[in-house]
Specification:
The chain is an alpha+beta fold. The protein contains three helices and five strands. The chain has a five-stranded antiparallel sheet with strand order 1-2-3-5-4. Strand 1 and strand 2 form a beta hairpin. About 35% of the residues are buried. Bound molecules: adenosine monophosphate. The site of adenosine monophosphate has 13 residues, from loops.
Amino acid sequence: MTIFSRIINGEIPSYKVAETDRFYAFLDINPLTKGHTLVIPKLEEPEADYIFDLDDQLLADMMVFAKQVAKGMKQTINCQRIGVAVLGMEVPHVHIHLIPLQKETDMLFSNPKLQLTAEEMAEIANSIAIAIDGEE
Ligand code: AMP
């Protein structure tokens, strides 16, 4: 079971941003920028490893969910736009990175990661969650 499946099951804590019956969004624990969020489908492996192996409809629905999350992020975090990336080099569970950007180089995964306190992470996740709830 991947670490992200354990997060979905609640076995490992996460800074939750949004959730539906099929998707979950939470803060990346090593953020490139403030508000760096991951969007994942609630699937078990092996079908949950590679994004372009996903069922067409699930992939489309995940992007729409990511769009709602990104809108909430844009309202909350001071940024030019929300960058989107898929790597999956570390964790074999489909995830989309949503990264608030001020400039192109904010998206470089080789950049040093931010060190934020638990309180800061909780506050960021909570503000984004409130903004997403306000969209509905
Ligand atoms: P990649 O698979 O290359 O897209 O990278 C995995 C991402 O997941 C990295 O940005 C990690 O910081 C992030 N990550 C790994 N474990 C956790 C966790 N327990 N909670 C939140 N983010 C995580």
